[in-house]
Amino acid sequence: MSVSSAVSRKRKWGPRMWPYLFSLPFVLTYAAFQLYPVIYSFVLSLYDWNGISDRSFIGFKNYVQLWTNDPLFIKSLWNTLIMMGMFIPVTLILGLTLAYWTFHLVRGKNLIQTINVLPYITTPVAIGFIFSYLFDWQTGLVNLFLTKVGILEEGFYWLQDEWGSRAIIALMVVWRNLGYFMIIYMAGMTIIPQDVYEAAKVDGSTGLHTFRTITMPLLRNITVFLVVTSVISGFQLFDEPKLLYGGWSGSAQVGGPDNSALTIIWKFVDESFISNTRFGYASAIAYSLFLLILLFSIASYRLTAPKEDKR
């Protein structure tokens, strides 16, 4: 190879190597702290290991036991799906309604947005404390109000009732995320051409009819995004139930009354660090959760996306 050809090849490949060199620190960091733990956790799910003794390879027995012989996992899955069914539709409907009403306000729009976004930036610990206090049996403001107006004769055990606990957790999620949903919908409304509304007004379309036939269809992609992300975050529900029953007043209660507030992530944490130290079994829960999120995310997209996007 001649000297001229070597120099030309160096000049050719020299500039092309710079992007790879600049991206190398991120790639190495990602491989060390993200990719390797993901792969290692799957390998660990094939073992029986408590973190101290020697690992014992058992294949897919952790997965078989999880889905066929662990009623608590099935109940945690059922609880998670029930609470998702409670808060996802409510948050979508209220978020869209509130966004439409706020978007058309002439005065006070910024104040309404600020008030509704504040819960979203509130720390989960504070949210757990607030709702634990509101629904306390003896000193809770909800029971005090309901008994004072005559709806209840005596205080109701909200936090010790199976469906009451799930409803409170769903209410916590709605209260926290409503402002976020409102902001996303309002952002979508800003890109809708006003000519469309003017043409509809000329044709005689008014308030509710315009909202149903123009605003909602044009916000379809926003709704798809919120549904899919809500499904993903719903399967990762942990902060609200854990802080509601996790000992804000000094006494922790895993899973709530009769495990009615136990979620998949709470089950995972309990198996890993609280009641047990079965790291292989907990890894099987994590990968099962990954598959559930993948399947339900695809299903929610297929059900909510416009027909032309379902390809």
From TrEMBL:
Family stated for the protein in its record: Belongs to the binding-protein-dependent transport system permease family.
Biological process (GO), any one: transmembrane transport
One term under GO cellular component: plasma membrane
Keywords: Cell membrane, Membrane, Transmembrane, Transmembrane helix, Transport
Name of the protein: Carbohydrate ABC transporter membrane protein 1 (CUT1 family)
Membrane topology, as annotated: Multi-pass membrane protein
UniProt keyword ATP-binding, yes or no: no
Coarse class of the protein's main subcellular location: membrane
Residue spans crossing the bilayer: 20-43, 81-103, 115-135, 167-187, 218-238, 279-301
UniProt-listed InterPro entries: ABC_transporter_permease, MetI-like, MetI-like_sf
Record domain ABC transmembrane type-1: where: 77-300
